[in-house]
Amino acid sequence: MTGPLDGVRVVELTQGLSGPYCSMLLSDAGASVTKIEPPGGDYARGYGPPFIGDEGAQFLELNRNKRGMVLDIERAEGRLVLERLLLDADVLVTDFNPARAAELDLAYDAIERVNSRIVQCNITPFGERGPMADQPGAELVIQGMAEYTASVGTTGEPPVRLGADVAQLNTGAQAVQGILAALLMRERTGEGQFVDVNMLRTLMHLRGMMWTSHSEGADDWWGFHQDTYVKPADHGYRTSDGSLLIGGMGGVAEEEFDALLRDLGIPESVKEDPRWANNGAGVLGGPSRFGWEVVDVWEQALKDKTSAEVMEILDAHGLNGFPVNSYEALFADPQVDEIGMEQAVTHPEIGAYRTLGAPWIFAETPAAIREPAPMQGEHTDSVLVEAGYSQGEIDELRQAGVVH
Fold this sequence. Notes:
Blueprint: E1 9-13, H1 18-28, E2 32-37, E3 51-52, E4 55-56, H2 57-62, E5 66-70, H3 76-86, E6 91-94, H4 98-103, H5 108-114, E7 119-124, H6 139-145, H7 166-189, E8 194-198, H8 199-211, E9 237-239, E10 242-247, H9 254-264, H10 295-302, H11 307-316, E11 320-323, H12 327-332, H13 334-339, E12 342-347, E13 351-356, H14 380-386, H15 391-399
Parallel strand pairs: 1-2, 1-6, 2-5, 6-7, 7-8
Antiparallel strand pairs: 3-4, 9-10, 10-11, 12-13
Helix pairs in contact: 1-7, 7-8
């Protein structure tokens, strides 16, 4: 067994980031994924720089463990091939807006007629209904619409997006959860279903935990992790050789807090400042409403100490602090090595390269990177043979330009 999803057959008709990330996670967990690319190929093959050989690094990352074929589903012959592949599939992952799905006859009512047990997950920017349902949605657009840019950047300056593609990749992860829930339901009922996952809903869902912390008046709002609604972004606390992000202060007992002040060399008299009243330890690390206003008090005490010295003091009081990592420092950290995230893959054309492993570790059925991302059309013949096509039929489809 290659993983907990061994035996689950997935057909993927997606490009870019979100859909391929969803099916990558399924394949890492052992599902058999057949990625169907249009004749021009997945446009993510051209995402770069960086490129490894002729392939975009993101494409290689997102499409490992998949078999790849090229099929023109806009042609009648290609549609028949697709239906044949769907007969034995458990999951179909798509990323078409409603109008395009209808044009291609890929709405769920059409898919269900082919295989009533199939679970189809369609990933869109804005959902299946509403005035924006058929509009494209880039990462920046979704982040801005979902109000994510309100918590990044510097007060008074233009908003900025989060560095990671949080809309697309989190939506891909949510799609995995929806698919697995639908497969579990199918085990009980014998019937598949349609799963609608969209980026706007995903980001609003994730944002909801922070929105619950709003006070009654938005202008009077303050809260942990949401500093930039009304105050500067949290860049940490400067030390003699860098800066630290410090957390865990909200639940510190008063006597522990007093001991911390002593060890850092801060007089307890600072607690006479009314901004510290009733806030206790919350004035360090962000939870306090006025914590950002007294950053200079802490930095005066930290400026003659190295980050390592401050971390040792924090650790002695059951608190945590850590310098903001660079890419190089992160991958040199022994903890990263211990959890085994960095892995090596060998591609038949471009050789060896590094990639990241799956996010979970299964004790009995390990997730694994078994194969590199497929070359364009690499497995077309083998996929069609499994679907019952003879070599003569495959040659005819290739000559007609239906497959590549």
